[in-house]
Amino acid sequence: MSVLKTPLTRLLGCQYPIIQTAMGWVADAGLVASTCNAGGFGFLAGAVMTPAEVEACILDIKKKTDRPFGVNFHMYTPGAEKIVEICIRHGVRAVSYSRSPSRDKIDKLKDMGVICIPTVGALKHAVKAVEMGADAVVVQGGEGGGHTGGIASSILLPQVVDTLDVPVVAAGGFKDGRGLVAALSFGAAGVAMGTRFLMSRESPVPDQTKARYVGALTEQIIVSNKLDGMPQRMINNRCLQQLQSTSIPATLWLALKNGWAFSKITGGSLWGMLSAGWQMKKASGMSLGQTLMAANAPMLIQQAMVRGYPDQGILPSGQVAGTIDDLPTCKDIIGGIVTQAEDTLARLR
Fold it and tell me: Which residue, among 120, 121, 113, 122, has the nearest Cα to 95 in the 3D structure?
């Protein structure tokens, strides 16, 4: 049996142990279907969608592929219960989530056979996720893009693998077959990649924004907490530099405006936004300021990823973007990873 057939491929029903993560505004139906058709497993970015949009995208994915796929969403938002029902009704194979999981929703999904795979950035969070019912966990090292921790994948991954009895997926710093073999050698069941799939032909990100990723240097991809009070890894651009010099009161005011705008995009209300923020604060231990600022990220990311203004928005990115200089198809990405992994394993033997 091929070493590329792992507990992750058996759990998810995909051909290769490669996950495409649910990047907000990026992981649309087209990207998910292309990933799945190439043998990987794609997650839809439902966290920036209304329940109706999530359902429409699920139906669109099913038109484009007969392979299993997943949906990502935030369990503390007002539409979360509807998204759970939609995922169950349409037979979605798996869901992913991060901050503030809900045990009731996890139990409901698992009772209906939906696999639960949260993303975590610390050992204690991985342990808690499994205690709450996770079937597998994605462990993101500090090299990863967006919200990230401070521990490198090479340190965090074996810690989690040694502690948990469920499949562990490595994220943060992975782009090719050598990385997949390295993750497997640590005991991981596969890899999850965001930036590599963002930098693909099927990614819906505008060309001018993709060009900023292709041209980014590794040392330009930094960590900042100015966006929402929590560490996020991004390409250093004009928008981030302006945020770095903005006062805390001004940042909070920006967050309130962005929060209201985001609630309208996702079909919520002012009361729903405030209620979701309070639930997130209680469940995650975030400060009031961090909770208020949480809405900055999706709206500023939208400027770059949807509207095509890379200097007016935020560019979440793993450090690995500094080593990528092409925009291949998902088929070529996954095919190249598999070929290089098999060649690497043959060389090691």
Answer: 113
Residue 135 forms part of a structural domain: yes
> What is the Cα–Cα distance from 237 to 311, expressed in whole angstroms?
6
Quote the CA–CA distance of 8 and 31 in Å, as a whole number: 20
Neighbours of 91 (CB within 10 A): 12
- Give the strand pairing for 232-235 and 221-224: antiparallel
DSSP 162-229: HH-SS-EEEESS--SHHHHHHHHHTT-SEEEESHHHHTSSS--S-HHHHHHHHT--GGGEEEESTTTS
CB-based contact 28:57 (threshold 8 Å): yes
Q: What is the pLDDT of residues 307-323, one digit of tens each?
A: 999 999 899 999 999 99
| Entry pTM | 0.89
Decide: 15 and 39 in contact? Cβ < 8 Å: yes
Smallest CA-to-CA distance from 283 within 66, 145, 10, 80 is with 80
Residue 281: the pLDDT is: 46
Residues 165 and 263 in one domain: no
Is 142 found in the same domain as 33? yes
Residue 225 banded pLDDT, cuts 50, 70, 90: confident
Domain that holds residue 148: 7-205+324-348
Closest by Cα among 192, 169, 215 to 326: 215
Specify which residues 147 forms β-bridges with.
232
Q: Is the pLDDT of residue 250 over 90?
A: no
Residues 138 and 42 in one domain: yes
The per-residue pLDDT for range 120-174, each reduced to its tens digit, is 999 999 999 999 999 999 999 999 999 998 999 999 999 999 999 999 999 999 9
- Decide if 143 contacts 172 (C-beta within 8 A): yes
CA distance 104 to 215: 44
Q: Are residues 98 and 15 in the same domain?
A: yes
